[in-house]
Predict the structure.
Amino acid sequence: MSEGAARWRRAEAALRLLAIDPAGLGGMWLRARAGPVRDRLTDGLAVLPLPPVRLHPAVGDEALFGGLDLAATLAEGRPVTRAGLLAAPAALVLPMAERAGPGLAARLAMALDGRSGHALVAIDEGACPEEALAPALADRLALHVELDGLAWGDTDAPDLASLGPARARLAATALPPGAAGDLSRVALALGIDSLRAPLLALRAARAAAALSGRPLAGPDELRLAVELVLAPRATRLPAPEAEAADTPRPPPDAGGRGGDPAAASPAADILVAAARALLPAGLLDRLAAVRGARAAPAGTGAGAARKGNRRGRPLPARPGRPAGEARLDLVATLRAAAPWQVLRRAQAAVPRLVHLRPEDLRLRRFDERSDRLVIFAVDASGSAAVARLAEAKGAVERLLAEAYARRDHVALVAFRGRTAEVLLPPTRSLVQTRRRLAALPGGGATPLAAGLEAALALSRAARGRGMTPALALMTDGRANIALDGRADRTAAAADAERLARLLRAAALPSLVIDTGARPEPALARLAAAMGGACLPLPRADSARISAAVAAALGR
């Protein structure tokens, strides 16, 4: 059996277990781009014993938990509420789950923890490892399935027959003694720090035993639970068997039990070996990228958050009176006035269909994200200019290639000779970027102050167009041309420090990348004056530069 066919078999098994015990397993994290392979698996969700409810990543609290039915309230003259999507147990299907914000993730996690019978199928369509499901939800979904890279020829129609009898056998299915301890030891060996993971694995083993028609879960069911629940959560490789065998075990205590509760039993050793065989090359690197992205400050990668009343993601309306550009939210206003209509009609001297008062007025609000601009100011002077510019070109191209769904723009300023030049204005076009970068000049003196001045002017222009700029400066720090064009190292250093203070006053996030063979103390002082960080990268390549910029500037 090919590797792709084996992955599809595991995906089929995950779907069958979810159909047997949806509420107990919590749901499935399905990481897959749109396509026929994903459709073939999601078509099988129809066998879940729960009514399907489709959610949107921007769904609001009123839709989830219910609220006032405006039309019925106005018609009957009394408050009439309607139930929300979470009122009854359902199979919640969340497309574009990687775009779910922290608020929605917390609310869905609360619903899964509340033993209300819900199951969540989070369809993660992230284009890169940094775009992933929120950890709060991933921790509560037992089954993690990834279909990206599977060919249509590796798949077949899922076999979902005879799930009804298996569902009926689930309550009478038991677990063998020591299963909880064995699965906990496997989770420890894989670096899983969540206590939910082994508990969910136990539920998966019971569902697998019910599917097989066995009253007691055996080694095959425990191995399947490890493959579907624990292996995808691994954060480290298990210790090699030889190393584990050489490690002395603590003597048993007076009761005859091992002194170390984490000491592996033979069954746990077999399960760890099964998990190790499933970890593909590069899996842990992708998990690290996902964790690093989720550890970034909120709002990164999409520019600064701005509250407005014209466009963007809708926010709850706020009380107020229309003035200037403030716009009235008619539906929210009527909703605020509806509960008081009976009382106001009884008190009103003039009969009206709807009685509104100033305290009912609600104003529209939107959360708008500005575009992000990363300005590269690159030292194109000296003998190392060719190599430095080549890596800067690669870093710019990598950042643009990874800018999917993040509204990132990139600009490039090169300084050499006696002046600085904006070689690449703010752009998102990768084709245009490659064409502009193909013939970058290099060599000459180092007008560092002129480069900082050009970057400052570019950042001010970008802010004037509603963008959020950040600066990445690449240089070896040997400035020798003053701002007025004189060849004077002392004046050049003073001009660079003055421009650095102006950049700090402009609140421009910045990163100084020291590309010299040895760290330059003057660059550390310059970075401090700019209010940014200084990162020595004497052997910088495009991958390290783009990673450093992403980490330091919060992309």
